[in-house]
Every structure is written in structure tokens, then in C-alpha cells.
Design brief:
Elements (H helix, E strand, L loop, with lengths): L17 H6 L2 E2 L12 H4 L3 E5 L2 H9 L4 E6 L7 H15 L3 E6 L1 H8 L3 H19 L6 E4 L4 H13 L2 H8 L7 H15 L12 E6 L3 H14 L3 E6 L5 E6 L7 H8 L3 E4 L3 E5 L4 H14 L9 E5 L25 H9 L9 H7 L7 H10 L3 H12 L5 H27 L8
Parallel strand pairs: 3-4, 3-6, 4-5, 6-11
Antiparallel strand pairs: 1-2, 2-11, 7-8, 8-10, 9-10
Helix pairs in contact: 4-6, 5-6, 5-9, 6-17, 7-9, 9-10, 11-12, 13-17, 15-17
Bound molecules: iron/sulfur cluster.
Length: 432
């Protein structure tokens, strides 16, 4: 395994396809045709991978309940990378998902040493105002981890199933890692699973839109969701080659397996710690029964969370975006004129001389200005395709792209910041 994914460190992923082999993330291309009105990031392959997103495409198609959830650590300015996640949450909300946004103040306190007051101030003034300004509707849920009893209680319950070896294998924690940091990792899992609590309608598919560096949280939570559940269904083959399903429930409370045996489709045979089910291959019907029984016996019946993974934008100067280098990123609260100047100073994929540019064409795939257009500033796919084609064919010069991007960035930020001020008066609609 060569690629290191660290949610709290810096990440430089050179080849996204490695994540398919190394971490079991699946290519998004396979599911793309299932989505009737895909988000811009899906159309442009910015979202490149997923886990279990088929559950979400099914829910969107069948209009059955699903949730979308993501969190923001309130430790600095909200920038265009955060906007990407917000855009994806809002899109899923518009597609019918019950939307949750957690402000990870426990994480900021444990990992960055931020005071609770500062966490609240940054959470509201940076993240929440922008989220509302971008279109998050009040039917959704915005909360601070430290104020959510649901999340705190669930963290404790999940902590029963999470041990140090597992956290250390996933996150690289050592003996020096403070306990609150470990608790904050489990708190992220509670954030992710909260939409499935009975307060919010019980088990349902939930998608977490993230950058690839956040995959450790997804892996931990999927594992914990399985461990929390009372039952596991396995496909088995008997000695004559006949297939059957088996519901394993070693830690199920007394009477629960009997209940599954009584309600399962097909013929059942009850054993001490499992029920074998013959004469049916209807996994979904059996899963429904198992989940229903689990809920009746006080369990959670969690659906392991789905995730989408997006590519990162690079820094404006090339290389990585870094919160300690303001020139490398544009914050949603940057002065629009200053932001336009940053765009004009950004690294392009242009050639050294005008002659070369005309002869060889530019390199939009290595150009941070083109990235701004692709990720944020050009809605129309045809317009973007034209810019790309003019660039590679040497018909476009970097000055015109920079002017276009600077003008649109300044216009976007001016409007966004006006909407942020209006959002300030609407906080009570969101229970804040
Ligand atoms: Fe980038 Fe535009 Fe220059 Fe091409 S012409 S390298 S897209 S700035």
C-alpha cells in the first residue's frame, strides 16, 4: 500500500485510480448512467469514485428515503474546497435527501486545540453562512457536535465496538495520540450514522460526499455499522451444492433469532446462534425482516454508509492548497478584488512563449485557472469544452482565461457575500 490517506494531514494523490485497487473504492463511471440529472461534478468526472452509491441511485429513482451527511471542522477559512462539499450536499438535498451538516467542533478542539467559543464563531461565520447562502434549505439539519446529545450518546455506544488497534491501523494513531483525538474519530462515525436513528426515521441509505483523504472515516464507520448490527446475512452452499441464506446472530438478544425464523421468507431452521433460510434467494426481503426484528429488539439496524469521492483542486500556485498559504486558495470570504488578483497571479498550463503556445497549444490539465473554470465558474459544459479545445489547439491565450476567471470569481464572491449577509438574519430558521 503506497498511498497514505490522512484526514488531518496533507494529501497529494497523484493517481486516483490507485485508490480503486488499494482501498476498494469503486469507479463512479459505472453508476453514472443511473443518474437522470447528474451534478456538474459527476458529468465532469470530478467525482471519480464511490462506495455503495447504488443504494442512493436506487433511492433517488424509487423516491424512497435517503440521507446525505457531511461535516466541517471549524478551524479556519471556508474555501473553494469546502464549497465543493456544500454544493454536493445541497444537490442531494434537492434530489430528495434528508440533509445533515455537522460542525466538527469536538474534532477542532481535540486536534487543533481550538476553544469552544472560537469553534462556534468560525462554525457560524465561515461555514454555516456560506452553506445557507449556497442554498441549503431549512428542512435539513445543521448542528454542532458538542451540542448534539444524539451524537454524543451514539459516540459512546460506538466506542464499545471500536478498539485502539483498529483506530491505529486506520489512522496511524500511536501511544502519543491523545484520547480526545481518538474520541473525535469515533464522533465522526456517530455524525455519519446519526441520520439513521429513530429520531430521523430509522435505517436508510446515507451518502457522505468527501474528498479522498476522508476515506478512513468512511471505512471506520462502515466497519462499526456492521459491528453494531445484531445480525449478519451470509450466502452459503450445502454439501450437495445447494445454495441457502444464513442469518448469523451471535450477540442477538434472547428471542430475536426465533422471531427472524418465524418471519423469514422460505423454510427456516433455527440453531443456537443462527437461522438457516432455504427455498428463497430473496436477500432483500430477508434483509427487511432482519432489520425490522432488530429494531423491535432495541438495535440500530444500520445501513453501512455510502460515499462519493471527489478530486481535489490544486493550489493556485500549483502543488497543493494549503491553509497556511493564503495565495494558494480562494476563501469564500476573500475580498472579491483581492480574489481576482489571486486568479491573475495563478499558475497556468501555458507555454513559455506566445509562439510556442500557438504552435503546441496549452496544457489545461495542468492549469489551475482551467480548474477554477471547471470546478466552479463555468456551468455550461459546451462553453467549457470550447475553452479546452481552444487551449489545446493553441487558439486561446492565458490572458483571456485569466480575465474570464478573475471576472467571474469576483462576481461570484460579491453575490455570495451579499447572500451570506442575508443568511445571517435567517439563522433561527435553522435552529441556530
Ligand atoms: Fe490554462 Fe487558459 Fe492558458 Fe489553457 S489558455 S493553459 S486553459 S489559462
Amino acid at each position: 500500500m503506497n498511498t497514505k490517506l490522512d484526514p488531518w494531514g496533507s494529501v497529494n494523490i497523484e493517481d486516483y485510480s490507485k485508490l480503486f485497487d488499494e482501498f476498494g473504492i469503486l469507479p463512479f463511471d459505472d453508476l453514472y448512467p443511473e443518474i437522470s440529472d447528474p451534478h456538474m461534478y459527476m458529468r465532469r468526472k470530478v467525482i471519480f469514485g464511490h462506495r455503495s452509491y447504488d443504494l442512493i441511485t436506487d433511492a433517488m429513482k424509487n423516491r424512497t428515503p435517503f440521507s446525505v451527511m457531511s461535516g466541517f471542522m471549524p478551524s479556519g477559512k471556508v474555501h473553494l474546497g469546502g464549497k465543493m462539499v456544500m454544493d454536493e450536499i445541497i444537490w442531494h438535498q434537492q434530489m430528495g435527501g434528508d440533509a445533515f451538516v455537522g460542525i466538527a467542533d469536538r474534532e477542532a478542539h481535540a486536534v487543533r486545540g481550538m476553544s469552544w467559543e472560537k469553534c462556534r464563531e468560525i462554525g457560524i461565520n465561515e461555514y454555516i453562512l456560506s452553506l445557507i447562502a449556497l442554498g441549503f434549505e431549512p428542512e435539513g439539519h445543521i448542528y454542532f457536535q458538542s451540542k448534539s446529545e444524539n451524537v454524543k450518546d451514539l459516540t459512546f455506544e460506538l466506542g464499545v465496538k471500536a478498539n485502539f488497534s483498529e483506530l491505529s491501523a486506520i489512522y496511524g494513531f500511536s501511544g502519543e495520540t491523545n484520547i480526545a483525538h481518538m474520541i473525535s474519530a469515533v464522533t465522526q462515525s456517530a455524525d455519519i450514522l446519526q441520520p439513521q436513528l429513530s429520531d430521523f426515521g430509522g435505517p436508510k441509505p446515507t451518502v457522505i460526499p468527501v474528498g479522498a483523504d476522508q476515506d478512513p472515516h468512511i471505512r471506520l464507520t462502515r466497519g462499526l455499522a456492521h459491528k453494531m448490527n445484531m445480525f449478519r446475512i451470509e450466502g452459503r452452499v450445502d454439501s450437495d451444492g445447494g445454495k441457502y441464506l444464513s442469518v448469523r446472530g451471535k450477540s442477538a438478544p434472547e428471542g430475536a433469532l426465533e422471531e427472524v425464523a418465524g418471519r423469514a421468507p422460505g423454510d427456516t431452521k433455527l440453531f443456537e446462534a443462527h437461522v438457516d433460510v432455504f427455498g428463497t434467494d430473496d436477500f432483500v426481503a430477508l434483509l427487511d425482516v432482519v432489520r425490522q426484528v432488530e429494531l423491535e429488539f432495541g438495535g440500530y439496524a444500520f445501513v453501512p454508509p455510502a460515499a462519493t469521492y471527489h478530486r481535489f483542486m490544486s493550489g493556485l500556485q500549483g502543488g497543493k492548497m494549503s491553509s497556511s498559504i493564503p495565495e494558494s486558495y480562494i476563501a469564500l470570504t476573500d475580498d472579491p478584488k483581492e480574489a481576482a488578483k489571486k486568479v491573475k497571479r495563478a499558475k497556468t498550463g501555458g507555454r513559455v512563449t506566445l509562439e510556442e503556445q500557438k504552435k503546441l497549444g496549452g496544457e489545461p490539465d495542468k492549469c489551475s485557472v482551467y480548474e477554477l473554470l471547471l470546478f466552479h465558474l463555468v456551468d455550461d459544459d459546451d462553453e467549457l469544452a470550447e475553452i479546452y479545445s481552444e487551449c489545446v489547439n493553441g487558439k486561446r491565450l492565458c490572458g483571456s482565461c485569466k480575465s474570464l476567471a478573475a471576472e467571474r470569481m469576483s462576481g461570484f464572491l460579491t453575490e455570495h457575500q451579499e447572500l451570506r449577509e442575508l443568511a445571517r438574519d435567517r439563522l433561527d430558521e435553522y435552529g441556530l
